[in-house]
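Why should sequence recovery work at all? Because a backbone constrains its sequence more than one might expect. Tight turns favour small or flexible residues, buried strands favour hydrophobic ones, and helices have their own preferences. The token representation captures these environments compactly. In the example below, the structure is given first.
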């Protein structure tokens, strides 16, 4: 589902994800290599017109992975094991955006955020179709949330 649909369906994780990914402007993207082994790559993430979008350099390994096998995970970055942090993960599929109007809106969003935009046609942009999600808090309140359409939202205590 699109980000705006996910926000309406599971605001408990979506709001935390919006805050975490928005403040970092960077995520880790898990893809599958041609041989089936995992690849983890840093990637910029933006919310554009209700969609979670990832932009990539033209013909980058992660983009080629997604063009071959669209399954992926978007994971927030954690850099300090001692800091009270939160972690969000979104599992789903990546859909390449080829529609020029949507690509232009993505470029405008990037331009507003970092005063730079990729030039057409030399970049890839994908929208993430969210299939499941998770959240974990490692601060004073240790707990995790998990969501998928079959089981809905679940809460777990972390010890």
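From this structural description, the recovered sequence reads:
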């Amino acid at each position: 589902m699109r980000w705006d649909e996910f926000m309406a369906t599971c605001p408990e994780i979506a709001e935390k994800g919006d805050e975490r990914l928005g403040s970092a402007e960077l995520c880790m993207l898990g893809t599958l290599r041609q041989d089936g082994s995992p690849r983890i790559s840093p990637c910029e993430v933006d919310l554009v017109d209700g969609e979670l979008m990832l932009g990539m350099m033209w013909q980058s390994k992660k983009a080629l992975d997604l063009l071959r096998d669209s399954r992926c995970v978007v994971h927030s970055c954690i850099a300090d094991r001692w800091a009270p942090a939160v972690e969000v993960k979104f599992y789903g599929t990546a859909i390449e955006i080829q529609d020029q109007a949507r690509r232009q809106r993505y470029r405008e969003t990037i331009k507003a955020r970092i005063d730079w935009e990729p030039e057409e046609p030399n970049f890839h942009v994908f929208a993430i179709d969210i299939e499941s999600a998770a959240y974990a808090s490692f601060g004073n309140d240790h707990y995790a949330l998990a969501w998928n359409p079959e089981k809905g939202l679940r809460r777990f205590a972390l010890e």
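A few observations help interpret the result. The domain at 3-157 is CATH 2.30.110.10 (Pnp Oxidase; Chain A).
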